[in-house]
Amino acid sequence: MYGPVTSYPASVDATFYFIVAVSLFFLLLVTTLMIVFAVRYRRSRRPRAEQIEGHTLLEIAWTIIPLLLVLAMFHFGFEGFRALRSVPEGAMTVKVTGRMWDWSFRYENGREAAKLYVPVDRAIKLSMTSVDVLHSFYIPAFRVKEDVVPGRETYLWFRPQTTGPADIYCAEYCGQRHAYMMSEVVVLEAEEFEAWLAAGGEEGEKEGVPALLARHACLDCHSLDGSPGVGPTLRGLYGRQRALIVAGREETRVADEAYLRRAILEPDAEYVRDHERNMPAPVGLSEEDLERIIAYIRALE
Amino acid sequence: MARTAAPPAPLACSYLHPGGGRGGLLGWVLTTDHKRIALLYLYSILGFVAVGVALGLLMRLELIAPGRTIVGASTYNALFTLHGVIMIFLFIIPGIPAIFGNFILPLQIGARDVAFPRLNLLSWHCYIAGAILAVTALFTGGGPPDTGWTFYAPYSIRTTTNVTLAVFAAFVLGFSSILTGLNFIVTIHRLRARGMGWFRLPLFVWSLYSTAWIQLLATPILAITLLLVMMERLFGLGLFDPARGGDPLLYQHLFWIYSHPAVYIMILPAMGVVSEILPTFARRTIFGYKAIAFSSMAIALFGYLVWGHHMFTSGMSDTSRWIFSLLTFLVAIPSAVKVFNWTATLYKGSIDASPPLLFVFAFVFLFMIGGLTGLMQGALSVNVHVHDTAFVVGHFHYVMFGGAGFGLMAALLYWFPKIFGRLYPRRPVYIALGVLFAGFNLLYFPMLVLGWMGQPRRYYDYLPQFQTGHLISTIGSWVLLVGLLILTVTLMRAARRGPWAPPDPWGGTTLEWRTASPPPVENFAVEPAVTGRPYDYGALGRGAAAPEGR
User: Fold this and answer.
1) What is the set of domains in chain A, with CATH numbers?
2) Is residue B104 very low, low, confident or very high in pLDDT (cuts 50, 70, 90)?
3) Which residues contact B518 (CB under 8 A, 6 or more apart)?
4) CB-nearest partner of B380 from A78, A174, A277
């Protein structure tokens, strides 16, 4: 059901099933007693009740026994959590950036990707931050989750034990396309991973503009084919009259090169009427890439 | 009804039809009679429940299949925000205290009214004002808010939807809650009848008392937090948005310092209702009176110290996480103590499986699932996996709806004859309970499974592997609706045409049963004197003051 395995989930599941077992015991106990009492002491059989005010020993017993049980639950949960928070020496660090509504992963050699490629059987530390609102990085298969918070760095780690893909979700509500803020962790054999990592990086091949737009999460809101989205489509945008809100007032401008540049770099300065003002400015967009994007939009008719 | 004796004539001057004073609508909306205010709350709250249920049904319908079914993503996000805001701020927080606390509390302690009747009316006016503001927020500004009821920053700061007004509505509603809490505390301290010492208080009063302290002390924190959100949105204050130097975790702390104790505002009064109903229908004294009374206070106290368990994955320090986990497990103990004492109260009783009692059974079962799934989330490593998934949604619906909601329905069925002076037929209520119970579990149990499988919450769309669970859940929502409709229709008909109720149709021992049904405006002709504990069926058995025919 979940895909690749790490050993940490087994410990989480064991804690979970321990609590489930204790819970089922008490649920069945109380439910059975209620039903048995209600049938056995029904008024037609037993017109007069016995008045029992309480029982001190019982009160102590049903305070102490649950107390011990919940302390055990706490202990197992805590032990698992400690493992989750103790990153082993020599873990490989990947930087994770969350933004509305996309994940991006940056490796130590500078390679960036929209999916999280990792080698099998190696500790991976994710060092995470957000450029806009709260997100939460969640891999159900690995039982790991941690919020991704703008303005600070959070982390988690895992050690995948089998190869294969697994889902990554955003678990903290982050606006319109929250449910689509997904990605994949792809667990590769060590050599495969090294090959993948070496292929990219700073010397890697130049990516196409659509891939560039996807990597900067532009395509989550702006379509290339003219279909409506959260933001205006990029098709046929260049040279069109735009009804803008500038400093709270409406203005009409032509979408020329200067306009596109401003709209990308300072999205909040002027924005298109009837659209939400929540586009994040791109992070780490080079001047060269910006020019390529503008040229691309210009040609997109 | 079990009782077949000739119906007594209704009082000519009950609170429903008083002789003097203002008549008509003004006689209601400007009344200072706690019983009339209770009914004002009952009708306004039930009205909003209907809206909240409708929104919930729409959400479930949207989720019946992956992809778009009936609404778009923005509408869906507004739906779950409104469903949460309405159900929490307009239904379940005021809920039992505002309706049954207002009606029953003065009667149970033998008082003529609450301590500050006009303040009581002001509470209801605050409630209505807040509700109107909340509704206005839907149709003005940038459209209905889409932040979730938690208003998490910085999204709530940045979204262009009408968050400012919605937050102000919650702020105004907070005052309604604070004033009611204050009123109840003073009432319980000052207006108890002669002879009613603290350990002669009915347990419902104890639960209201602990609830009132939370309302009074915790709600102002929410009020301040929401004001800060408004200031940040309006003036760019920079407290919560990191882009302006703020801290989103600060918001979460402030929000949950209120909103976790608020969970106990919601559930404690329902526990009080259960502690009233069980002795009445088992016809015996409650098991462990002091244990139940003190556990209410313990829950109120510990409830303040566990807010951090809403933030186990938020990025706060590991030390706070394990401390909050430990405290969270401790708060489970007083709830467990209550459940065990309730079960023991049935032992060797003389049990009448009446509708209120069966609703209490349903309450105990569903609340236990809610509480026990809470233990699963209290464990840190498990929490990390299920945090912000459908598991949490299932869990808190078991607690809030299965607990507080079923508690409210039990309270309504228990005090219905007192409030309306009429009886309802048993059979349709049993049928309603059966349908409700089946629908409830069909609706919410799959959420627990989905969450464990990794389905995050507040998702407009989902992957194919989650579809079976979502489908069952949506079907459950329809079954649940049928149950609610049967119950509503039955009670509405009974309120108008049911046979007249005697003063004490269930054989209850607490003071509200010693006056007419419905009670006269002044509650009691003579202030009742209290000579023993509540639920003292032993004294009745010895013939001390046994009502006729029992």
Assistant:
1) 7-85 (1.10.287.90), 92-199 (2.60.40.420), 209-299 (1.10.760.10)
2) very high
3) B10, B11, B14, B15, B16, B35, B418, B419, B420, B421
4) A78
